[in-house]
Amino acid sequence: RSTEDIQPGQHSRTATVHSDACSKTSAGEYFSPPPECYPPKETFSMKCSKVCTTRGILKFVEITVNILVLICVAAAQASAAGFTSFGGFGIGSFNLNSAYSPFEGTELQEVRELDMQFTQMRAPCVYGGVSFSLAAGVLTLVFLVVGAKPIQQLRVGLLAGECAFNLLAGTSYIIAVGLYLHFVSQVNSTEVCKRRERLYARRGYTSMNCVVQGGDAAVGLFG
């Protein structure tokens, strides 16, 4: 018969019979339940499709760039630390009895003090850059995990919060990069940096100069 001839009560009876069949067979009384009684199993490709959207790929790019900023901040500090400072924290990086030192005597003492002062002056750049990039990367990862659903299933509040975070993070990164490079330039213009540059230049080490290093430029580029 056509669908117009079916009484309204028959639809509810059909649905009741189907649900009863699923409930009886799920108890395992007579035979295994038919496949339609189970919800469809989510495959790996279905899970990946929820993340590998344009929005998800942009989140992955943001996280990767934050990691690159983090690495470049640490690398810039390590490269500018000098021979007598490890990682920019004033820890001796070589032993005079076991490794070659280009300096000796009073010159060694002077360059060691200058290295320590220089790396301590740059320490705010390291702490600020690491904490900022790490916080931005973690928050981006949180939005990626929480929003790993089709866009039509996400709440409006979550999307509004994500939009506000993106605008705030983008503006903050522009300001942070400007402050980072400005602070690095200020440190490079100090007398400590110039004296240190002259001491290293006497021994032929021209890389310890008072210009913006490649690592600092990479921080600005990725930021």
Notes on the protein architecture:
Helix 3 (54-79) packs antiparallel against helix 4 (105-146), helix 3 (54-79) runs antiparallel to helix 7 and helix 4 (105-146) runs antiparallel to helix 5 (156-188). The chain has helices at 8-26, 44-51, 54-79, 105-146, 156-188, 191-202, 214-222. The chain has 223 residues and is mainly α. It has 7 helices and no strands. The protein has a domain at 44-80 and 124-222. Helices cover 67% and strands 0% of the residues. Residues 9-20 have a biased composition (Polar residues).
Write the layout of secondary structure elements.
Layout: H1 8-26, H2 44-51, H3 54-79, H4 105-146, H5 156-188, H6 191-202, H7 214-222
Helix pairs in contact: 3-4, 3-7, 4-5, 4-6, 5-7
